[in-house]
Amino acid sequence: MLQYLTCGESHGKYLMAILEGMPSGLKLDSSYINDELLRRQRGYGRGERMSIEEDHVEIISGCLKGETTGAPIGLLLENKNFTIDSLPPLFRPRPGHADLAGALKYREEIRSILERASARETAMRVATGAVAKRLVSEFGAGLVSHVVQIGHVSVPKKPLSFDEIGEKVKTSILNCAFPQAERDMIHAIDLARKRKDTLGGTFEVIVRGVPPGLGSHVHYLRKLDGRIAQSLMSVQAIKAVEFGLGRDYAETPGHLAHDEIFYNRTRGYFRKSNRAGGIEGGMSNGADIVVRATMKPIATLGKPLRSVDVRTKRPMLADFERADICAVPAASVIGEAACAFEIARAMCEKFGGDSLSEMKRNFRGYLAQLRHS
Amino acid sequence: MLQYLTCGESHGKYLMAILEGMPSGLKLDSSYINDELLRRQRGYGRGERMSIEEDHVEIISGCLKGETTGAPIGLLLENKNFTIDSLPPLFRPRPGHADLAGALKYREEIRSILERASARETAMRVATGAVAKRLVSEFGAGLVSHVVQIGHVSVPKKPLSFDEIGEKVKTSILNCAFPQAERDMIHAIDLARKRKDTLGGTFEVIVRGVPPGLGSHVHYLRKLDGRIAQSLMSVQAIKAVEFGLGRDYAETPGHLAHDEIFYNRTRGYFRKSNRAGGIEGGMSNGADIVVRATMKPIATLGKPLRSVDVRTKRPMLADFERADICAVPAASVIGEAACAFEIARAMCEKFGGDSLSEMKRNFRGYLAQLRHS
Amino acid sequence: MLQYLTCGESHGKYLMAILEGMPSGLKLDSSYINDELLRRQRGYGRGERMSIEEDHVEIISGCLKGETTGAPIGLLLENKNFTIDSLPPLFRPRPGHADLAGALKYREEIRSILERASARETAMRVATGAVAKRLVSEFGAGLVSHVVQIGHVSVPKKPLSFDEIGEKVKTSILNCAFPQAERDMIHAIDLARKRKDTLGGTFEVIVRGVPPGLGSHVHYLRKLDGRIAQSLMSVQAIKAVEFGLGRDYAETPGHLAHDEIFYNRTRGYFRKSNRAGGIEGGMSNGADIVVRATMKPIATLGKPLRSVDVRTKRPMLADFERADICAVPAASVIGEAACAFEIARAMCEKFGGDSLSEMKRNFRGYLAQLRHS
Amino acid sequence: MLQYLTCGESHGKYLMAILEGMPSGLKLDSSYINDELLRRQRGYGRGERMSIEEDHVEIISGCLKGETTGAPIGLLLENKNFTIDSLPPLFRPRPGHADLAGALKYREEIRSILERASARETAMRVATGAVAKRLVSEFGAGLVSHVVQIGHVSVPKKPLSFDEIGEKVKTSILNCAFPQAERDMIHAIDLARKRKDTLGGTFEVIVRGVPPGLGSHVHYLRKLDGRIAQSLMSVQAIKAVEFGLGRDYAETPGHLAHDEIFYNRTRGYFRKSNRAGGIEGGMSNGADIVVRATMKPIATLGKPLRSVDVRTKRPMLADFERADICAVPAASVIGEAACAFEIARAMCEKFGGDSLSEMKRNFRGYLAQLRHS
To answer: Could you tell me if B222 and A218 are in contact, meaning their C-beta atoms sit under 8 angstroms apart?
Structure first.
C-alpha cells in the first residue's frame, strides 16, 4: 500500500512528491534526504547545472517533531533554476528522448514534454527513496550501489563485499568501487567530452539484510523481481535490468546456475553462492538482492543528431538542451532509491503495522518463526 | 484497467483465469487460445508431461455467440494430470526454485509452494495473452517471438524482418528463426540431457504496428517499458530483460546509440534504425518494440543439487520433480503473451471505449491526428 | 492487497471467482461456503428459480487438505440452468435495470447485458465473502445481518444484541429478527404478489469484535466506511448506505450525536452508546460496526413498465425475465458478504502476514499494545 | 487512471495535492480553483478561522501558459495558520473524531492524529475536484450542490431544476436553494450556538449532462454509484449516502420505483421521472445524477462531551479545538468536488485520450453512436 506520486517540471518552481503509507514513529529529517539528493547530483561527467544547484527538500507534512505520524509525507523542492515561463519553445525533437512521441501523444509543444520527461524528475524519486531507505534501515537492511561499467570500461569480475563497496564508493567521483577502473572511466568520459559524445553504462544495486519471503510466487504482480524491474526500467534512460547472473544465465549450465542450500545452527539456511541475486520464485531468499541496470548514453549530444523541424517537416539538427556527458553515477543513486522503495513497499505489505514499533514487533515475530522453521 | 487473475495448481483439477476489462464485440473462440497453448507446450527439450497433455481451455463467460460482451472473460483449463491430493509431501527444497523461501514465508509444506510456483501457471498467462493478442491484432498490431540463444549457441547478429521471423519459426521446434543455430541448439540440448544438466537462454519478442504514444513519460507507473519489464520478469525463471540495444548500450557511444528522426509524406516521422527497441521516454515511438529476456536453466536437475531436509536439517539432495532440459522456446511464447497483455492494456487506456467498434473509431481518430501533426 | 474478480453469466455454464491474497493455513471447505450460498437463496418472496436450484461451489485451487496455501483461491459454481445459448434476444429494456445503458455503452444486445448485470453474480460475492468471513472469525470477529424494513413494515426501534439477532434470524424466512414484523412483511409481500408488484427494503449488517484501528483517516481511499460503502453500494439494487444513526444524524443535535468515551481496567476504552456505528475518522473504533443499506424494489415486474423496442423505437412494455417479489433477505446476506470482504481486506493490511499463524501473532501483539496504551 | 494524493496538516505549513492522469490542453488557472475554495470556506455557522483565512492555491506543475500538459498537476496551498510546531499536545480524545482510534492505531499523540484527520484536508479535495469540474465542463456536464436539511429544518419536497438550484444558491449563505428554509436553518444554527451545540444535515449533489454509460455493471469496482459512494462517505463526518429515492425506496412499491423508458427523435431515449438518481446497473443512464449525503454534527462541542485523559485514564471533558456550529454548506461543496472527481475519472476511462481534443473527439464519436443506436 506504500505509494507515491511526484510532480514538477525541470525548470518549474517546485518539484513535489507525496509518499503515502509510511508507518508512524520513523525518525526522519530533511538532512538525510538532502544527503541522498547530493549523492545524485555528484559525479564526474555532469554538466554545469549540477554543479551550481544543490537540492534541498523540505518535509512539509507527515512528520511532527522529527518523526513520521502515519500521514502522507509531503516533500517540496524549490528549483533554483525556475525559468519555465521564459524558455523558448522547441521544434526539433531529440532522438532518444520522449520529445517526439510525447508531442504527438499529448498534442503538445516539445518544451512541455521535455520539462516533465527530463531526468530532473528523478530528484523526487531519490527523495522518496531516501525515506524508504530510512525505513528499511530500521529492519537491519541496507542498500548500496556502484557503477560497474562506463563505455568500454568495466570493473574487474572480482566481487567485493557489501561493506567494501560501501566504503570504496565514498571516495569515488563516479560511485565506482574500483579505483583503477574509475581512472579509466574518467579517461573515457574526457575523451567523449572532447568528441562531443556521451556515454552510458551499467550499475549494480545490492540490498543486504532482507529476510526471506518478501514478494511472492502466487501472483505475478506480487513478484519482487518483477516489481523491482518495473521500478528500475521506469527510470529515465534505463534499458536493461538483470538479477544475479542476469544475461549470463543464457550460457551457464544448470548445474552451475543455482545456489545450493545449506544449513547450520547459527545461520539457519544459507547459500555459498548468490547466482540468483537473492530472488527465487519472485521472493527474496535471504541472500543479498543483486540487480544491475544499464543506462543508454545521454541522448542530448553536443554534436546534435539529425532530426526534423516539426513545423516545416524539414530535416534539421536536434535541439540542444543540456550537457551531461555521462550520468551513470547519478543513475546508480536513483536506481538505489527505486529499489529501496520496492523493498519498503514489500516490507509494509509483509509486516503490516501502522507504527514502526508495531511493524518491528511483527518483524521480530517473523524472524523468530524463521528460526524455528 | 485491463486486469487479470489466475489460479490453479500444477496438479490441481483446473487452472482458471479471469480477464476483466476487455471491450465487447471482439471475435474470440477457444481454438485460437488453444493454438497458443499448443505453441507453449511444444519445443525440443521438454519432458514427458508436455508431450502427453494437450491443453484445452474453455471460455466460460464474457463471450456470447463467439464475441466478447464486455463482461469478464472466464477461462477454464482442466488438468489431465489431476493428482494433487495423492502426491507425496516434499522436504528437500530445490535450489533455484520458490521451494524454500515459499515454505518459510507461508509456513507451508514444499508441495503446496511448488504446485503454485510451477511454470504450469504460465498456461493461463498464455491464455489471457492470447485474448490480448486477438485484441491488438484488430488494430493492425502483431507479435512474434523467437529464441536467440540457448546455452552457448546464439543466432547470428543479422537481423531478420518481423515477417521473416514469423515465417521461419513456424517450422522450428525451438521457436528459432535460424536453422543452423537451431541445429546447434538441439545439439547442445542433447548434450545437456546426456549430462543430466539443463540449459537456459534468451528470447526476443517483437511487437509490430504499435502507434507512437502508448505508455507515458509523465508518471513512472505509466511507462510502457517498465510495465513490460515487470510482466516479463515475473515470468518463471526470467532473470534479465532488455529493450533495443539493452546491455550493449553500456559500450555504445551516444552518437551511435539513438535513432535519428526523419520524415516523409508517406510514412510520416520514421527512423532508419531501431536501437531503442521502439520505446523512448517510456512510450512507444512507432517502431517495432523489441525486447529480450533471459531465462535461467531449469532448476530441477536430473543430477540433483545439494539441499537440506527441512525436517532434520541434514544435507540431502534436492527433490526431483520433472525433467525438462530446456524450456526457452516455451518461455518465448509465454513472454510473447506477457507483452501482448501489456500492449492491450496500454491500448485500452489510450483509446478507451467499451466496444471494439468504439475503440477502433477512437484509434482511427488518433491515427488521423498523427497524420496531421 | 486482498482482491477478487468474478465472472459468469446468469444462465452461463459456470460462475467463477478468484480470491487473491488470503493467508495460508486457514481451514476452509466448500460446505461452509455452500451454507452461505444457501442462505442467499432462501427467503420468502423469491421466484421459482431460487427454489429449484441449490448452489454448490467447488474450491478448485488455493486449498490443500482443507487448508488455504496462500495461493489464489478459485471458486467454481456450475449453473444448473445453463441455457444461455438458446435464450432469445431481448429488445425491450427494463426500467431500473442495466439493460438500456448497458446496451448503449457496449453496443450489445440486451440479453448479453442482463446476463452479467443480473443478481445471479452475487452468488460469487457471497462465496468470496464466505471465505472472508472464515478469516475474520479466526480473529474473534463475526458478522450478522437482518432485515429491518420491507415496504412500509419496519422492525421496532428496540435494539437487539448481536447474539439475539443471530439467534432470531435463524428461524426467520425473511432474515428478520422480529417475528411480528416478519409476519407483517410476509403479508406485505403476499399483497405485492397479488398486485404483480415488487417490494424493496432495508437491511442492517453488524460486525462484532473488530479491534479499533481498521481503516485510516490519513488518505481517503483508506477510510473503512468509504470502502464498505463502495462495496455495499455496488451490490445490485442497493441505493442507500448509512452508518450508525445514518440519515438521522441530520436532525440529531451534536450533544446527542456522539459516543462519549469511558475507560475501565477490564474493558479498556469503551462507549455506552454506538451512534457512530463503530466508525470514527474512517476507522473502526472497537464498537460494533453497524451499517444499513436500502434496496430498491425488484425492477422486473409482473405487470411490466413502459419501455421502448430498441429496434423500432416504438413504445412497448418491458421484457419480463423473472419473478422475485422481494429479495431484501437475499440482499442482506450479500451485504454481509460484501462487508466481510472489506473487513478481511482491512485486517490483511493492518496485520500483514502470509500465514494465519503469523497474522494471528501480529494481531495478538496489537491487542497487547492496545491494552498498554 | 485519474488519481490523486493529498498531504498536509491542519496547522502545517502547506497543504499539497498531486493530481495524476489529466489530459493535456485543458485551460486551467488558479483563480477558478480559488473560487471553489472560497465557496468551501463560506457558510453561516462557521467558526472564526474560516472568516480570517482565505485559501489560495498555487498550480505548481502540470500547466504551461494556462493549459494542462498531461503531466501531474501539483497544487500547493500555504496555511496562514502555520502553528503546528508550537501547538500543545492533546490528551483527551474527542468523541466522534479520529482522535482515540487514530492514537491507538498509530501510537501517536492525539495532536498528530487530529492535524491530519481535520476537515482542513478537504481543501485539497475541493482543489482537485475543481480541476475535475473544469474537465467535465468541457463535455457539457456540470455539477451543483445544495443543502436540503440542517437539524430539523428540511427544504420543501418541491423539486427545482438544476439551473434554478444553481441560481438560488448563489445568494444563499447556507448553499440552500429555498430562502424560507434557509431562514429557518439560520435560526436553528443560532439556537445551537446559544446552546453550545452543533448541527448536522443533508446535502444533495446533482450532475447534469453526463451521457449514458459511465461506470459499468460488469465488475463491482467499476460501478459508478459504488465509486461515488466511496468518495462521498470518505469525506469527513459523512455518515449516509443515497442515490435517487435513496432510503425511501424501502417503502416505495416497484411500480412507482423505476423510471419508464420513452423515446423521441429529438431526445433519443428519455425518462419522465428520475427516481434512480441517474444510475441504473452501476451506470449513468443519461439523466441527472442525484446523490444525497448526510453529515453528522460537528464533534467538537462548545460544551465538551465526556472523555478520558489518555495518560491517567481518568474521566475528563474532551479537548476543545475549534468552533464551527454547522459545516453542512461547506460539506456540500466538498461533496460536489468528490463527485466531480469520480465523474472525471469515469470519463477518462470511457473516452481515453491524452489531450482534451482527443478526448472530445472520442466523446463526440460516442454521442454520434448513441444517436444511431
So the answer is: no
